[in-house]
Amino acid sequence: MFPNVMFDCSYIASDSSEIGYGWYNGPRDSDKFAYYEMPEGYWESNGASLREGASDARHTEQVKRVIRAARKASERAGAAGVV
Questions:
Q1: Which of 3, 7, 16, 40 could pair covalently with 24 via S-S, beta carbons 3.0-4.6 A apart?
Q2: Whole-angstrom Cα distance, residue 12 to residue 15?
Q3: CA 73 to CA 68: how far, in whole Å?
Q4: Is residue 33 classed exposed, middle or buried when 0-12, 13-18 and 19+ CB atoms within 10 A define those classes?
């Protein structure tokens, strides 16, 4: 219904048994939303993150690309007088 809206979602079960993260309608190279078992020691780790290492870096770059593209589209719309 809204093909240009992207959702970057994350989830942690109330009993901490599982986590979920990924995109709905995200970039072509994005992770689709999926559920995973809660990583061992998640809450005790310093700076707990859903994604690890290279996966987290890739996700951060995806978010930056989406934000840049949205800003450019907004600027183009503004320059064209579209509100």
A1: 7
A2: 8
A3: 9
A4: middle
For the segment 44-67, the average pLDDT, to the nearest whole number, is 82
Tell me which DSSP letter residue 32 carries.
Answer: B
User: What is the Cα–Cα distance from 78 to 43, expressed in whole angstroms?
Assistant: 44
Q: Which of 37, 32, 25 is nearest to 66 (CA)?
A: 25
Question: What six digits make up the tokens of 16?
Answer: 């901490």
Q: Model pTM greater than 0.70?
A: no
Q: Phi and psi dihedrals of 69, rounded to 5?
A: -65, -40
